[in-house]
Amino acid sequence: MKITDPSFNYNKFGQSYSGHRQTEPEIAKYIDRALGTARTVLNVGAGSGSYEAADRYVVAVEPSIAMRRQRLQLHRTPAVNATADDLPFDDGAFDAATAFLTIHHWPDRTKGLHEVRRVTKGQIVILTYDPDALDTFWNAEYFPEVVEVERQRYTRIDELISILGGVCKVEEVPVPLHCVDGFQEAFYGRPEAFLHKEVRSAMSAWGFIRPEEQEVLVLRLADALASGEWDRKYGYLRTQPYFTGAMRLITAR
Q: Could you give the number of structural domains in the chain?
Protein backbone atom coordinates (compact mmCIF):
# COMPACT_ATOMS: atom_id res chain seq x y z
CA MET A 1 0.00 0.00 0.00
CA LYS A 2 1.35 3.38 -1.03
CA ILE A 3 0.45 6.23 1.34
CA THR A 4 0.03 9.51 -0.55
CA ASP A 5 -1.62 11.52 2.24
CA PRO A 6 -0.27 10.81 5.75
CA SER A 7 -2.99 12.74 7.57
CA PHE A 8 -5.82 10.99 9.40
CA ASN A 9 -9.42 12.22 9.24
CA TYR A 10 -10.06 12.82 12.93
CA ASN A 11 -13.30 14.66 12.19
CA LYS A 12 -14.73 11.44 10.77
CA PHE A 13 -12.95 8.73 12.75
CA GLY A 14 -11.71 10.42 15.93
CA GLN A 15 -14.96 11.02 17.78
CA SER A 16 -13.99 8.82 20.75
CA TYR A 17 -10.23 9.38 20.55
CA SER A 18 -9.81 10.94 23.98
CA GLY A 19 -11.39 7.92 25.65
CA HIS A 20 -8.39 5.80 24.69
CA ARG A 21 -5.58 8.34 24.29
CA GLN A 22 -4.62 9.94 27.58
CA THR A 23 -1.54 11.31 29.30
CA GLU A 24 0.77 8.54 30.49
CA PRO A 25 2.55 9.92 33.60
CA GLU A 26 5.78 8.01 32.96
CA ILE A 27 6.10 9.50 29.48
CA ALA A 28 5.05 12.94 30.74
CA LYS A 29 8.11 12.98 33.02
CA TYR A 30 10.41 12.91 29.99
CA ILE A 31 8.51 15.79 28.41
CA ASP A 32 8.55 17.87 31.57
CA ARG A 33 12.33 17.49 31.87
CA ALA A 34 12.80 18.46 28.24
CA LEU A 35 10.76 21.64 28.68
CA GLY A 36 12.97 22.74 31.55
CA THR A 37 12.19 26.26 32.73
CA ALA A 38 9.98 27.23 29.76
CA ARG A 39 6.89 29.06 30.95
CA THR A 40 5.04 29.69 27.68
CA VAL A 41 4.55 26.66 25.44
CA LEU A 42 2.97 26.22 22.02
CA ASN A 43 1.50 22.75 21.51
CA VAL A 44 1.07 22.01 17.79
CA GLY A 45 -1.28 19.26 16.64
CA ALA A 46 -2.57 19.25 20.18
CA GLY A 47 -5.45 16.82 19.72
CA SER A 48 -7.56 16.49 22.86
CA GLY A 49 -4.76 17.84 25.05
CA SER A 50 -2.72 14.87 26.27
CA TYR A 51 0.69 15.76 27.77
CA GLU A 52 -0.07 19.46 28.12
CA ALA A 53 1.49 20.68 31.35
CA ALA A 54 -0.93 22.19 33.86
CA ASP A 55 1.79 24.32 35.46
CA ARG A 56 2.79 26.16 32.25
CA TYR A 57 0.98 28.61 30.01
CA VAL A 58 0.06 26.46 27.00
CA VAL A 59 -1.44 27.63 23.72
CA ALA A 60 -2.79 24.71 21.71
CA VAL A 61 -3.12 24.52 17.92
CA GLU A 62 -5.47 21.88 16.49
CA PRO A 63 -7.13 21.85 13.03
CA SER A 64 -9.68 19.09 13.76
CA ILE A 65 -13.03 20.28 15.08
CA ALA A 66 -13.66 16.83 16.60
CA MET A 67 -10.46 17.11 18.62
CA ARG A 68 -11.19 20.70 19.65
CA ARG A 69 -14.62 19.66 20.90
CA GLN A 70 -13.14 16.83 22.95
CA ARG A 71 -10.79 19.33 24.59
CA LEU A 72 -13.80 21.30 25.79
CA GLN A 73 -15.51 18.14 27.04
CA LEU A 74 -12.37 17.44 29.09
CA HIS A 75 -12.42 21.02 30.43
CA ARG A 76 -9.16 21.92 28.71
CA THR A 77 -8.47 25.32 27.21
CA PRO A 78 -9.85 25.87 23.70
CA ALA A 79 -7.42 25.32 20.82
CA VAL A 80 -6.61 27.68 17.99
CA ASN A 81 -7.88 26.41 14.63
CA ALA A 82 -4.65 26.40 12.61
CA THR A 83 -2.03 24.09 11.08
CA ALA A 84 1.68 23.73 11.72
CA ASP A 85 2.69 25.20 8.37
CA ASP A 86 0.77 28.46 8.92
CA LEU A 87 0.89 29.50 12.56
CA PRO A 88 -0.86 32.79 13.44
CA PHE A 89 1.77 33.95 15.94
CA ASP A 90 4.63 36.45 16.01
CA ASP A 91 8.27 35.47 15.70
CA GLY A 92 9.65 34.14 18.98
CA ALA A 93 6.27 34.32 20.70
CA PHE A 94 6.84 31.22 22.89
CA ASP A 95 9.58 29.96 25.17
CA ALA A 96 9.18 26.43 23.83
CA ALA A 97 7.03 24.34 21.50
CA THR A 98 5.81 20.76 21.59
CA ALA A 99 4.44 18.27 19.08
CA PHE A 100 3.25 14.98 20.56
CA LEU A 101 2.78 12.03 18.18
CA THR A 102 1.55 14.37 15.46
CA ILE A 103 4.22 15.20 12.89
CA HIS A 104 3.49 12.03 10.91
CA HIS A 105 0.13 13.65 10.07
CA TRP A 106 1.70 16.80 8.60
CA PRO A 107 1.70 16.93 4.77
CA ASP A 108 4.76 19.25 4.72
CA ARG A 109 6.87 18.49 7.78
CA THR A 110 9.78 20.67 6.71
CA LYS A 111 7.58 23.74 6.33
CA GLY A 112 5.72 22.92 9.52
CA LEU A 113 8.85 22.51 11.64
CA HIS A 114 10.42 25.67 10.20
CA GLU A 115 7.24 27.53 11.10
CA VAL A 116 7.32 26.09 14.63
CA ARG A 117 10.93 27.23 14.94
CA ARG A 118 9.97 30.73 13.76
CA VAL A 119 7.57 31.26 16.64
CA THR A 120 9.73 29.58 19.30
CA LYS A 121 12.62 31.18 21.20
CA GLY A 122 13.85 28.05 22.93
CA GLN A 123 13.53 24.30 22.61
CA ILE A 124 11.21 22.33 20.37
CA VAL A 125 10.16 19.04 21.97
CA ILE A 126 8.86 16.33 19.64
CA LEU A 127 7.46 12.96 20.66
CA THR A 128 7.55 10.66 17.63
CA TYR A 129 8.55 7.20 16.42
CA ASP A 130 11.71 5.95 14.78
CA PRO A 131 10.71 4.12 11.56
CA ASP A 132 13.96 2.15 11.71
CA ALA A 133 12.95 0.63 15.06
CA LEU A 134 9.42 -0.52 14.25
CA ASP A 135 10.45 -4.17 13.93
CA THR A 136 11.32 -4.33 17.64
CA PHE A 137 7.62 -4.70 18.46
CA TRP A 138 5.82 -8.01 17.89
CA ASN A 139 3.10 -6.41 15.75
CA ALA A 140 5.64 -6.52 12.91
CA GLU A 141 4.97 -10.28 12.88
CA TYR A 142 1.18 -10.22 13.17
CA PHE A 143 0.34 -6.85 11.59
CA PRO A 144 3.08 -6.21 8.99
CA GLU A 145 0.62 -4.27 6.83
CA VAL A 146 0.01 -1.80 9.66
CA VAL A 147 3.73 -1.48 10.32
CA GLU A 148 4.33 -0.71 6.65
CA VAL A 149 1.75 2.09 6.84
CA GLU A 150 3.61 3.53 9.82
CA ARG A 151 6.99 3.16 8.17
CA GLN A 152 5.82 5.30 5.28
CA ARG A 153 4.35 7.99 7.53
CA TYR A 154 7.20 8.42 10.03
CA THR A 155 10.14 10.63 9.19
CA ARG A 156 13.58 9.19 9.88
CA ILE A 157 15.17 10.63 13.01
CA ASP A 158 18.27 11.87 11.18
CA GLU A 159 16.05 13.73 8.72
CA LEU A 160 14.15 15.40 11.54
CA ILE A 161 17.41 16.45 13.17
CA SER A 162 18.55 17.95 9.87
CA ILE A 163 15.30 19.90 9.49
CA LEU A 164 15.31 21.14 13.08
CA GLY A 165 18.94 22.21 13.09
CA GLY A 166 20.69 23.45 16.21
CA VAL A 167 21.64 21.01 18.95
CA CYS A 168 19.32 18.00 19.12
CA LYS A 169 19.02 15.39 21.84
CA VAL A 170 17.30 12.10 21.05
CA GLU A 171 16.01 9.88 23.86
CA GLU A 172 14.49 6.43 23.75
CA VAL A 173 11.23 6.50 25.72
CA PRO A 174 10.32 3.27 27.54
CA VAL A 175 6.62 2.44 27.71
CA PRO A 176 5.17 1.11 31.00
CA LEU A 177 3.20 -2.13 31.05
CA HIS A 178 -0.11 -0.53 31.97
CA CYS A 179 0.31 2.58 29.82
CA VAL A 180 -2.91 4.60 29.70
CA ASP A 181 -2.13 6.21 26.35
CA GLY A 182 -3.53 3.80 23.78
CA PHE A 183 -0.93 3.87 21.01
CA GLN A 184 0.22 0.56 19.60
CA GLU A 185 3.28 -0.11 21.76
CA ALA A 186 1.19 0.64 24.86
CA PHE A 187 -0.28 -2.85 24.50
CA TYR A 188 3.02 -4.72 24.19
CA GLY A 189 2.02 -6.96 27.10
CA ARG A 190 -1.75 -6.84 26.55
CA PRO A 191 -2.23 -8.23 23.03
CA GLU A 192 -5.94 -8.95 23.49
CA ALA A 193 -6.57 -5.19 23.27
CA PHE A 194 -6.04 -5.32 19.50
CA LEU A 195 -9.06 -7.58 19.15
CA HIS A 196 -11.31 -4.65 20.07
CA LYS A 197 -12.30 -2.31 17.26
CA GLU A 198 -12.63 0.72 19.54
CA VAL A 199 -9.00 0.31 20.65
CA ARG A 200 -7.73 0.03 17.07
CA SER A 201 -9.85 3.03 16.06
CA ALA A 202 -7.79 5.24 18.39
CA MET A 203 -4.63 4.33 16.44
CA SER A 204 -4.46 6.29 13.19
CA ALA A 205 -2.45 3.64 11.31
CA TRP A 206 -5.39 1.25 11.41
CA GLY A 207 -7.49 3.87 9.66
CA PHE A 208 -5.45 3.23 6.51
CA ILE A 209 -6.38 -0.48 6.55
CA ARG A 210 -9.71 -1.44 4.99
CA PRO A 211 -12.21 -3.09 7.39
CA GLU A 212 -12.06 -6.43 5.60
CA GLU A 213 -8.27 -6.42 5.80
CA GLN A 214 -8.43 -5.55 9.48
CA GLU A 215 -10.54 -8.65 10.06
CA VAL A 216 -7.80 -10.81 8.51
CA LEU A 217 -5.11 -9.25 10.71
CA VAL A 218 -7.16 -9.50 13.88
CA LEU A 219 -8.00 -13.14 13.16
CA ARG A 220 -4.28 -13.82 12.70
CA LEU A 221 -3.58 -12.56 16.21
CA ALA A 222 -6.69 -14.18 17.70
CA ASP A 223 -5.61 -17.58 16.35
CA ALA A 224 -2.10 -17.08 17.77
CA LEU A 225 -3.55 -16.24 21.17
CA ALA A 226 -5.99 -19.14 21.15
CA SER A 227 -3.30 -21.66 20.18
CA GLY A 228 -0.80 -20.33 22.71
CA GLU A 229 1.64 -19.34 19.96
CA TRP A 230 1.77 -15.69 21.02
CA ASP A 231 2.47 -16.59 24.64
CA ARG A 232 5.17 -19.08 23.73
CA LYS A 233 6.96 -16.34 21.78
CA TYR A 234 6.10 -13.21 23.71
CA GLY A 235 4.38 -14.22 26.93
CA TYR A 236 7.24 -12.78 29.00
CA LEU A 237 6.01 -9.31 27.97
CA ARG A 238 2.84 -9.75 30.02
CA THR A 239 4.87 -9.03 33.17
CA GLN A 240 7.76 -6.97 31.77
CA PRO A 241 7.52 -3.56 33.50
CA TYR A 242 8.74 -1.51 30.51
CA PHE A 243 9.22 -1.93 26.79
CA THR A 244 11.61 0.22 24.76
CA GLY A 245 10.52 0.18 21.14
CA ALA A 246 10.32 2.93 18.55
CA MET A 247 9.14 5.88 20.65
CA ARG A 248 11.62 8.77 20.68
CA LEU A 249 11.74 12.20 22.29
CA ILE A 250 13.65 14.81 20.32
CA THR A 251 14.65 18.06 22.00
CA ALA A 252 16.00 20.68 19.58
CA ARG A 253 17.64 23.76 21.07
A: 1
